[in-house]
Amino acid sequence: MKRPVYLDFAATTPVDPEVAAAMHACLTSExxxxxxHSPHVFGRAAADLVERARTRVATLVNAAPEEIVWTxxxxxxxxxAVIGAARFRARAGRHIVTSSIEHPAVFDACRxxxxxxxxxxxxAPDAHGVVDPRAVAAALRPDTTLVSIMHANNxxxxxxxxxxxxxxxxxxxxxxxVDAAQSAGRLQIDVEAQNVDLMSLSAQKTYGPKxxxxxxxxxxxxxxxxxxxxxxxxxxxxxxxxxxxxxxVGMGLAFELARERLSxxxxxxxxxxxxLWNDIATLRGVLLNGDPDRRVCHIxxxxxxxxxxxxxxxxxxxxxxxxxxxxxxxxxxxxxxxxALGRSDELARSTVRFSVxxxxxxxxxxxxxxxxxxxxxxxxxxxxxxxxALA
Length: 391
Fold this sequence. Notes:
Blueprint: E1 5-6, H1 17-28, H2 41-60, E2 68-71, H3 74-88, E3 95-99, H4 104-114, E4 119-123, H5 133-139, E5 144-148, H6 162-172, E6 175-179, E7 198-202, E8 213-217, H7 245-280, E9 286-288, E10 299-304, H8 309-315, E11 319-320, H9 336-340, H10 345-349, E12 351-355, H11 362-382
Parallel strand pairs: 1-11, 3-4, 3-5, 5-6, 6-7
Antiparallel strand pairs: 2-8, 7-8, 9-10, 10-12
Helix pairs in contact: 1-7, 2-7, 3-4, 5-6, 7-11
């Protein structure tokens, strides 16, 4: 290949050309650059685009436009949902349930709440990364106010049964928050049918721009949360600050394109993911992380026995992949998700997350597989690890 192959779409996606063109128009046109909160003709033109984008985002998840609040991304959405809802409903209860394989934005938000006197229960997944709805039900208490479970895991791609978990929460009177950053545009989402009260969404994972996201708030179950920021009153006071017209327009169009292409994209990406796995699985000691069937279409996580992790990732420098979550790359600690699955620290460090996207080709998959196989075989010959038995 003439340049490194990009297989890190779970970290971020390139902006779709149609999306980039729509954003450019908002930055440079005669009217659409206005502040959407200004009452004059320029502001009204921008406001119309903002509301059209809100409708497009809502449509992807079967929500009403007024249930969508703009944020800077899914990390802020997670914080606003978890911290904002917990604080707003503190009088109803101060107990939160989540899992031990959540995104750091949820995990650390729960830790922050614990310093405020909230009690947090962490439900463990099974060895395949599946959170059993019955385990969530068992963790609920009379004072449970919020449950937060990710839809598709950002490291291993395992898909949780959010409909069943949501039904349990609804029956027990707890709010249900879902981080859908990796699943939006790749799995069918219906917040009504799946009993979701709050949902975090990201533009940059769905071929939209970085720096913008959204939070869905079920208008019947929770009309508002305690805001994290103050001043301005925008977004009904839930998320003050000037809404960046070009970014939300980009997210809206990206979500509309994702809805139109969802079925075709899912089939094609799953085929590329499976082709890669079928090729590298022939190597001894390459272990699949996560449930083999309940997986989102674009993520493949494998751990490799008999090699040192840092050396493996250096050897794969011609293929852009991740060691785990892009959100935790500054940490030297082994992945908490992989630890929860029972992987040793050594295996967690020798883990590679491949993630495919719309621009991925069959030739790139072949190149990535050949590069991976060559790297593993070469490293095992150069420095065999006596303590790592090959499966």
